[in-house]
Amino acid sequence: MELTWFKKGTIYQIYPRSFNDSNDDGIGDLRGIIEKLDYIHSLHIDIIWLSPIFSSPNDDNGYDISDYCSIMSEFGTMEDFDVLLKETHKRGMRLILDLVANHCSDEHKWFEEARKSKDNPYRDYFHWKKPSIDGGPPNNWKSFFGGSAWELDEVSDEYYLHLFTKKQPDLNWENPKVREEIYDAMRFWLDKGVDGFRMDVIPLISKPEGYPDAPDIGFRKIIEDVYANGPTLHRYLNEMNEEVISKYDAFSLAEGVGINEDTVGLYVNYDRKELDMLYHFDILECTIVNGKFEEVSPFDLVQMKHIFKKWRDAIHQTGWIANAMGNHDFARMVSRFGDDKKYHKESAKMLMTMLSTQNGTLNIYQGDEIGMTNISLLNIDEVRDIQSLNFYKENKITHKYTEELALEMINKEGRDNARTPVQWDGDEINGGFSKGEPWLKANPNYKDINVAYQEKDPNSILNFYRNLLKTRKEHDVFVHGDFEEIEFNNPKLYIYKKKLGKEEIMVMLNFNSSEESFDAGSNINEVEVLVNNYENLDVENNNVLLKPYQGVILDLK
Ligand code: TEU
Ligand code: CA
Question: Class assignment of domain 481-555?
Fold first, then answer.
């Protein structure tokens, strides 16, 4: 297997709205990103992924696109984009865009036309159905963001499908014209020199024939069995690859919603020529039992080890995946999987030590490199995320939870946690993100957690990430290799050895806030320490004593 640039590369995800605001209107923008390219480069990042930057009424912050070939006015101009691309390439980095092709905005020309009449030439770009006998929606499908997935269009007395908000009508991929439109948009950006796409909810593009009711199996299973993995999906992914992606030096990174270890191969196995990689939801959702704002389970390390192992085995030597512990849709990784108070620094470093030694392409989300944490929004007026707002509204009707509890759940799981402005400087207003009023408030802890302070501190999370990512570049065994698990059922420690040709490393991670010891099995006193989030490693004979949240990588060869 060849370790191509996109396999070995580290991806840094930017959520442009929250990254850096160059003109102080409170919204991050492309010029703001350009200002920070040297910073990103200094992290040893290879690939930048931009969340959607296309024209959009921003019902879902750009995941509702009204024109696939123009830039959202708040973010800047096409000229800004061209500069951004050029400057990214100049630094030896690549740039990928977020292709939202399952749905578009209801303000896209296609939908505005389609809703005019039943015989409009664009009608068949979307999914339309007559009401059920009682006049209600055609089936029982629920939207990801609450309520029915169907919206009645008064003009034609037909419903259209929207798996997300009603301002995000699903595109009908069975229509060859739709596919051609999307492929043309992809070519437009690839011809400019873009290096690939992250593909939003791509497993959902093919709908089950006849739109059957979903069985009562819980939302997560419904996604897998009903919404995702549709009958024509793989034909289209193959077509997209053949007609577009494969013609360029570019790659596809799919959002693996609704995919499990049994189906992943159908998407990413090399011989199928569909997608280059995907990131799955099992780690991101491992504390979310069925869906957001329902049941939450405590973080369980052994379960997480099983997940990593399961996915590793599923694509072993046949395909490729990417690994992420955070993105713009989930609460902050250090708050979820580590300790964002007493052991903030230690746990943030340890978690990335783990992620960077899992097989696959490494995905990092903006702000995690300084250990940004969840925020406590004080009341519902401070909440911006449509998913959280819809949950709150729905709860006002159902009264399932008290209003206090609903807000608490939003603060724990809501997407705004990951979307607060990046904390550049502790001495500047809004953490240096903007001098204007930010669209979502900055986390007040920017005074302690910020890039400027961490630049000066050699032991900061930021400088640790730099060293870790640089080390990863020098050792392919971080990126892939054969695993040997040690003490697999230990609920506090995650220990493994990895081997690739002549390279061999040992990774030792303590997920606990107390010291933990284990028997290393052989003498590791003499070996080189590649990475360590503490100054020392405590070894006596074969016995290793790991400090709270200590993470160490040893070079065994
Ligand atoms: O996310 C798809 C998705 O499955 C999310 O709805 C996810 O389940 C949820 O946020 C977790 O509770 C993608 C984008 O990443 C997201 O930002 C968009 O809102 C969504 O698609 C619609 O485009
Ligand atoms: Ca701005």
Answer: mainly beta
